[in-house]
Amino acid sequence: MESVVAHRLDAARVGRLATVSSDGHPHVVPCCFSLHGAILYSAVDAKPKSSFKLRRISNIEASHFASLLVDDYVEDWSLLWWIRVDGTARVLESGSEYDQAIELLVDKYEQYRRQRPPGPVIAIDITRWRAWPGPESWPSSS
Amino acid sequence: MESVVAHRLDAARVGRLATVSSDGHPHVVPCCFSLHGAILYSAVDAKPKSSFKLRRISNIEASHFASLLVDDYVEDWSLLWWIRVDGTARVLESGSEYDQAIELLVDKYEQYRRQRPPGPVIAIDITRWRAWPGPESWPSSS
Which of A74, A75, B18, B27 could form a disulfide with A18 if both were Cys (CB 3.0 to 4.6 A apart)? Predict the structure, then answer.
């Protein structure tokens, strides 16, 4: 993918992660993330959750497919854009890739430096990038 | 649902709509919307699209399930919140409900007053509301 798209994706502070439940229902949550080449990492952090076993985790265990969207809403609709990555997701509980992912997230978010994410990490192996409109339409300053 | 949650949902200018393709892949796009009781309307508008037949439409025709998320990212994570509605979606091409939905969208978005959305309308019949954290945690000023 064009590096300008990857750069803009990784610069975003929040994404919206979509997964699918075992019975075919969509699920979408906001999440923090960090991009590393063609892999996107997101951690289950210490923000209070309604249950220990998060639906995003059980969905990924059930169906593996995941999609993450980044966009920036502004009232001047001529400036709207979004980037979406689709891929297959894995849940990491420990190990060297888990440790590396946590380091990437801690590097990106100073909030994680104060409280490291204790939960599992979601790794999305990106298989498709979509950018709307194409990056050729983007202001060169952004 | 508590009216404070419905009010905050409808006050949001953008949502992220998740659907599922016929082969079980999640899909997520930003969209404008308007809430009307327990139905949420979103229109395919005149912003340039990559194809005439949008994936969100073919997904809804295939699986009906839809989920829309509203959130507001801020760096003070103690202030984060999101609202999500899940439901079954219908595609409206014309008729009185279509006309009413367009009016609601035109009322909410002055951008639509300049250019009415020409495309079909997605109607989500909401079956479940989720708010995180619970609205009892929300600042009373918001």
Answer: B18
